[in-house]
Amino acid sequence: MAVLSKKNRSFSPDKLTSNRALFWIAAVFAIVMIAPALWVLGLSFKDNTLLMRGSEAVFSAPYTLKNYTDLFHSSLVFRWFLNSMVVAVGQTVGVLTLSSLAGYAFARLEFPFRKTIFVIVLFGLAVPEQAVIIARHQMFSWLNMHNSYLGLMLPGMSSAFGVFLMTQFFRAIPKEIDEAALLDNTPRFRIFWKVLLPLTMPAQATLGIFTFLLAWNDYWWPLISATKKDMYTLTIGIASSQRNFAQTEGLGFLAAQAVFASLPVIIVYIFFQRNIVTAVSGGAVK
């Protein structure tokens, strides 16, 4: 009887009403957030001549795939896609590698001025990118690294947030694990690579997702560093198409480019969303 009464209290009408209210509030916010994406998706399936009369044509038939087939006739779009993929993947790998090594060093190793250096790294979170853009541009010009993949990737590899995140995760792992491995004369790097690094996979997945997203959508630095069309990333390429060919190509074609550009980010999130939820809920620490 006591068990039944507890169950009845857990499914009380007040609690059920509260859950339904929260559900509908969340549903409304979700619709508001997804509405612009659905609008762009609808535009991408409309004929450009119909959209010239008014964008409200998106709500009625007919629909067409012509805007997507036109993408295959533009070789630059796929070149821009390749550039974005190389830059985003390379930058993500670089951030994960450097942040993991730095986080392990700050959390586990003792070396001179460790706390001071960590504070200096955290200062990077407070310095906006625009404050150093002139010095960065001059440095990369001197090194002749503009219009290159390495020039597009290197600035994004220094992630103060990534170092802070990985440091906190390594600190949350009990030090008894290291001590047990050291008793077996296990080298430091092997402890890092074989024992501790696998425990931080949820944090790395989260950091990797955010890094890939920022690198894929980055507009500011590629706009400055990439001056040749064949080195444009997808964001710069789409912007240049909108500026120069919006009247001839049409709104539907630009929407199709935007949908095409967003597909990799959506696919990556779908595959790694479980790791993000685990990291946010603190499952990695447990």
TrEMBL record:
Taxonomic placement: Bacteria, Pseudomonadati, Pseudomonadota, Alphaproteobacteria, Hyphomicrobiales
Membrane topology: Multi-pass membrane protein
Pfam families (alphabetical): BPD_transp_1
Localization: Cell inner membrane; Cell membrane
TM helices/strands, residue ranges: 21-42, 80-105, 117-137, 149-170, 191-216, 251-272
Taxonomic superkingdom: Bacteria
Main function: Part of the ABC transporter complex UgpBAEC involved in sn-glycerol-3-phosphate (G3P) import. Probably responsible for the translocation of the substrate across the membrane.
Annotated ranges, domain ABC transmembrane type-1: 81-272
Record keywords: Cell inner membrane, Cell membrane, Membrane, Transmembrane, Transmembrane helix, Transport
Record-linked PROSITE patterns: ABC_TM1 (PS50928)
InterPro entries listed in its UniProt record: MetI-like, MetI-like_sf
Main location: membrane
SUPFAM superfamilies from the UniProt entry: MetI-like
GO cellular component annotations of the record: plasma membrane
One of the protein's GO biological processes: transmembrane transport
Oligomer status and interactors: The complex is composed of two ATP-binding proteins (UgpC), two transmembrane proteins (UgpA and UgpE) and a solute-binding protein (UgpB).
Cell inner membrane among keywords: yes
Stated name of the protein: sn-glycerol-3-phosphate transport system permease protein UgpE
Entries under PANTHER family matching the protein: ABC TRANSPORTER PERMEASE PROTEIN MG189-RELATED-RELATED, SN-GLYCEROL-3-PHOSPHATE TRANSPORT SYSTEM PERMEASE PROTEIN UGPE
Protein family: Belongs to the binding-protein-dependent transport system permease family.
